Amino acid sequence: MTTSPHAAPRTDGPGPAPSASDAEPGSGRRLRPGRDMPWSITLLVLARDRGIFLLWALFLVFFSFWCAPYFASIDNALLIANAASLTAVFAAGVGIGVMTGVLDLSLPGTAALASCVCGWLLTHGHATWLSLVAGLACGVLVGMVNGLISLGRFNPIIITIATLSVLTGLAAVVAGGYTFPGLTQLTFMGTDRYLGVPAPVYIVAVVYLVGTIFLTRTRDGLRLMAVGGNAEAVRRSGIPTPVYQVLGFVLSGLFGALGGLIATAVTTEANPQASPSIIFTALTAVALAGVSLSGGEGSLPRILVGSLILATITNGLTIRGIQPYWATVITGLLLLGSLAVDRALHRAVSERLVSHAHLTVHDKKA
Which parts of the chain are coiled coil (predicted)? Predict the structure, then answer.
């Protein structure tokens, strides 16, 4: 099946784009769970694509019993959601970058620069809305610079490591080597609650809803994912791949800046120090969600659940009075285990599909 250069293939939902491993060998079409596939293959595909939701549910059940009666409550659920918010925003930036074929390691620097620019404007009497727009514009500008440099066939990882250093220095220049404390103008998006729900939770909900719709229901979003999967094939179909390669960096930078502004709103302080833990935590959530680092595959809802799993583990261990560093140990082990399971499921699905195709061909000849 061929696609027009002016339209991208549609998907059936907010999940990852169709992959070659889900196609019946030799048929040129994607198998549909429950109709074309035997139920054994359907269950394996569901376990591969939706297993992280089941994993989170298991953690919730486990901690509900182990940390009773404090864990299973509305107040604690809001604490987990709020704790996961910042990670979720940065993970969205990392995830969209990875899914579209780039890995932006400059997000901590982007966050620091956006925070300091916003803080400088606020402390010099400028309007709150203008300060926030300027902070977000920093993220867009950084993304464009990263994207344009990458078009010169430079390694994106090297580029973003270099820009991380530059951005950290620029943030310190803007702040004069100090911080901007007392930024209470931003509490409406940081510490304030609406209907009992912390403001960052609303921001994350909007980010992931809009992001999911964009990637799965719009032409540009689908093309962006396609470029991440195979930029050369997309280029040969007539689509301007450089535009979408830069767009991937821009979206990543935008979410990095947004994360920096949320952190500033929560702490009421703009800090020029770029925290490396930001990128590592976000990468952990993305990897836990099973997003392929080769690009072209992934799902924002899974990334969100990955962020919630990290917050759930930390929350449950804290309730039990266990030192926070054990959460890091458990998260690392969980990540290794999830990678092993994901590889095993991919192999099992591929083997079952090949076997199913051979049986189908044999039955037709018979």
Answer: none
